[in-house]
Amino acid sequence: MRDILYLEQIEQAEILFKPQRIEVLRLLAEPRTCGEVAQRLGQSKQRVYYHVKLLEEAGLVTRVAERKVRAVHEGVYQATARSYWMSPRLVGRLGGLREARDAMSLGYLLDLMEEVQEDVAKLDPAASELPSFGVSGEIRIAPERRGEFLDELRHTLQDLFTRYGGAEGDAFKLAVACYPKDHPKEQEDA
Known about the structure:
Blueprint: E1 2-7, H1 10-15, H2 19-27, E2 32-33, H3 34-41, H4 45-57, E3 61-69, E4 72-79, E5 81-86, H5 106-121, H6 146-164
Parallel strand pairs: 1-5
Antiparallel strand pairs: 2-4, 3-4
């Protein structure tokens, strides 16, 4: 079972648009027969089998074994991954082609997150060790100091890029995102 399956085909995404199929997929985190899944969901075996077959055709579920119960052969199925990520490109962006965006815009941040998501999904899950690193934190900046903060952040990152931007060694990608933690509700005039 893979850690992540990155969904880039619309057919795979469409299969997951039914909440019942997501429930079937969750139950198939462990190898199970359609009968076992049906019992847990309180559904008929035929109904679950229908959903499992669609998930299997889309590459989201794999038949991992077969059991013989009395005179009937019963398939044992398992999800192909622990997590499924849907490419934002499946939905696309309205308004035509992507344009170069201002680094301070929400659109630029969305493009950056999409790029990071795609890069992470393409990492080799079979590698014994993937040297990756994540940092997250919260800062508070007074509106009048935002420019000062951005200048200092830009300077610090440029210094890192200059010191470690050579042609030798393992290549890593660094992405930094800064966005409001929560959106304050606008006060309505009474």
